């Protein structure tokens, strides 16, 4: 999936991904002591409390473990569209995989919001989607997971 980048786009949270790379990846961290992987980056391991964490690029593809649709604007600190501008969106828990091994489960937006087109175990891939505009009119983008057409 190719992500188009214009000069009027910015990442909502630039520290969590490699966007504007053509094939962006989320940035997590991995504990040298116990091997636990976190997202977003953490400096201490939530599993063993160790402090030897290093940044790691997370796999782009995964499977939907759980999902729902968000039919109304979330509460604070949500800064996206509201009122007539709000469009319902899918939200999923996605297990990112490295071969046959699950690396981490990440909660994020889904590009699909039609329940008839979402399924447990569905393969998805990381992409970036428009979210809102900032005070200067630049489009803010955020990560989401799009169904993979096999």
What structural class do the secondary elements suggest? mainly beta
**Helical residue percent band:** under 10%
Main sheet attributes: strand count, strand direction, barrel closure = 5 strands, mixed, barrel
Report the principal-axis shape: globular
Radius of gyration: 16 Å
Number of strands: 9
| Spatial strand arrangement across the major sheet | 5-6-7-9-8
Provide the residue-averaged pLDDT: 90
Number of helices: 0
Task: Sketch the topology as an H/E string, one letter per element.
Answer: EEEEEEEEE
Q: Gap between N and C termini, in Å?
A: 13 Å
- Unreliable spans are none
Helix and strand arrangement:
Blueprint: E1 9-11, E2 27-31, E3 37-38, E4 53-57, E5 61-70, E6 89-98, E7 101-110, E8 123-133, E9 139-147
Parallel strand pairs: 1-9, 7-9
Antiparallel strand pairs: 2-3, 2-4, 5-6, 5-8, 6-7, 8-9
Which terms summarize this structure?
150 residues; mainly beta; 5-stranded mixed β-barrel; 3-stranded antiparallel β-sheet; 0% helix
Description:
With 150 residues, the chain is mainly β. 0% of the residues lie in helices and 43% in strands. The chain is built from no helices and 9 strands. The strands form 2 sheets. Strands 5-6-7-9-8 form a 5-stranded mixed beta barrel. A 3-stranded antiparallel sheet has the order 3-2-4, with no helix packed on it. It is globular. The protein starts with 8 loop residues before the first strand and ends with a strand. The model has no long low-confidence stretch (mean pLDDT 90).
């Amino acid at each position: 999936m190719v992500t188009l980048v214009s000069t009027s786009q910015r990442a909502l949270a630039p520290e969590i991904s490699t966007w504007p790379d053509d094939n962006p990846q989320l940035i997590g961290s991995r504990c040298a002591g116990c091997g636990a992987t976190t997202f977003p980056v953490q400096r201490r391991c939530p599993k063993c409390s160790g402090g030897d964490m290093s940044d790691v690029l997370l796999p782009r593809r995964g499977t939907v473990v759980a999902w729902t649709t968000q039919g109304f604007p979330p509460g604070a600190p949500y800064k996206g569209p509201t009122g007539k501008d709000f469009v319902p969106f899918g939200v999923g828990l996605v297990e990112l995989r490295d071969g046959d091994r699950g690396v981490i489960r990440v909660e994020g937006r889904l590009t699909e919001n039609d329940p008839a087109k979402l399924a447990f175990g569905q393969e998805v891939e990381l992409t970036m989607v428009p979210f809102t505009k900032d005070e200067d009119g630049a489009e803010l983008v955020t990560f989401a997971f799009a169904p993979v057409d096999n």
